[in-house]
Design goal:
- The protein has 15 helices and 13 strands.
- The protein is of the alpha/beta class.
């Protein structure tokens, strides 16, 4: 399969030539150039081949879990009652601060393995559960270490502007913790992009703009959790700063879609959080289509609002909950997910790109979004290596 703007771009009986980890040629087998005729071959017996998947929004480095809060909610406890009992993001921050780097890495690797088993070759990992300089850097170091332990690419996002710790206010926190931690993380080579949570319960647009100004001064791209729970201008802010992605965007408007189209920002659709928190406001998928805004799809795997460890299920949910098409869902976890991470060397089957491929035991691409709880991966090729 090769990606194309208007569909899957399927090639029947195709051949892909890989040289030095890159795609050297792709096309119908019958057209294979003579120069490649004598190369060793691997026959996949008519299976579907796609670009390897990309999960462009995760929070998989963290301490502990919040299954007990899930149970408490089902037993009738309110969010306020859970928070007073030390729950919510406070519990994850406490567990993350208490864990050492070795423990955080050990906890993260099974999550990474689950995504690899579903055909992922690249994932994004955010900080944001430390909320102090030392713990934020610790999370990012662990995210970097994943690549040394598993055959997968990791792009890191600095998300210290995720929540306001108890005992301080948002502006003081940005001045005394977030911005100094950003400079320290950048100096250590730990940051690929800078993120923030722009929401009434977190940071307003003026506060996020201060973080983004620092990111731009450091030459770092920005992205934003925007318009997840309400409409306070986060999407417009992301567009103003030329963000590589605006994520969640449930409360984004048609005007926001126009702004994203003009800025070239990817809209990242996160159905796991929508499902988990019982949201009813769906992202404006049709407005994004109408304006030509590329849509990515990701798990948002985190311990609180989206404990979703399946990129394939995220694709299914994007289709069933938001009426995305299977072709859009697949583009959202390949070509557009790469763009949401600022990557131009993967996400498609095209000459010159990385040979990151997924081989599937399915007959049609739609089956990847159709199945629920099914993992039809036959094999994964990462940088040309199986």
């Amino acid at each position: 399969m090769v990606s194309s703007p208007d569909g899957y771009g399927l090639i029947a009986d195709a051949a892909i030539v890989i040289e030095r980890g890159l795609i050297a040629w792709v096309g119908p087998s019958i057209d294979l150039p003579a120069a490649y005729q004598d190369l060793p071959t691997q026959d996949y017996d008519g299976r579907l081949v796609t670009p390897a998947l990309i999960d462009c929004h995760t929070h998989i480095v963290h301490g502990g879990n919040r299954a007990n809060e899930f149970e408490m909610r089902l037993n009738g406890k309110s969010y306020e009652e859970i928070a007073r009992a030390g729950g919510g993001i406070v519990s994850t921050v406490t567990a993350t601060r208490a864990a050492g780097e070795a423990q955080l890495l050990a906890d993260a690797l099974p999550r990474v393995d689950a995504l690899i088993a579903q055909g992922a070759a690249c994932i994004e990992v955010k900080s944001g559960y430390g909320l102090n300089l030392e713990a934020e850097l610790k999370m990012l170091r662990v995210a970097r270490a994943i690549e040394t332990q598993r055959p997968i690419r990791v792009k890191t996002s600095f998300l210290a502007a995720h929540a306001v710790p108890a005992g301080t206010d948002a502006d003081t926190y940005i001045d005394r913790v977030c911005i100094p931690a950003l400079h320290a993380a950048h100096a250590e080579g730990l940051v690929d992009a800078v993120d923030g949570f722009c929401e009434g319960i977190a940071f307003n647009t003026a506060q996020i703009a201060r973080v983004f100004d620092e990111a731009k001064a450091l030459g770092l791209p920005v992205k934003l959790h925007a318009e997840q729970l309400s409409h306070i201008g986060g999407t417009a802010l992301a567009a103003k700063y030329g963000a590589i992605s605006a994520d969640h965007v449930e409360y984004a408007t048609a005007d926001d879609a126009k702004a994203l189209a003009q800025s070239g920002t990817i809209a990242v659709i996160l159905p796991g959080a929508f499902y988990t928190i019982h949201e009813t406001q769906a992202p404006p998928v049709q407005a994004f289509r109408d304006q030509g805004v590329p849509m990515a799809v990701a798990t948002d795997w985190n311990p609180g609002s989206s404990p979703l460890g399946s990129i394939l299920l995220a694709m299914n949910m994007a289709c069933t909950l938001f009426r995305m098409t299977p072709a859009e869902a697949l583009a959202g976890t390949t070509r557009n997910a790469a763009k949401a991470l600022g990557l131009a060397d993967c996400g498609e089957i095209r000459v010159g790109l990385r040979a990151d491929l997924a081989i599937w035991d399915v007959g049609t691409p739609a089956e990847l979004s159709y199945g629920i709880g099914i993992t039809p991966l036959h094999a994964r090729i990462f940088g040309g290596a199986k």
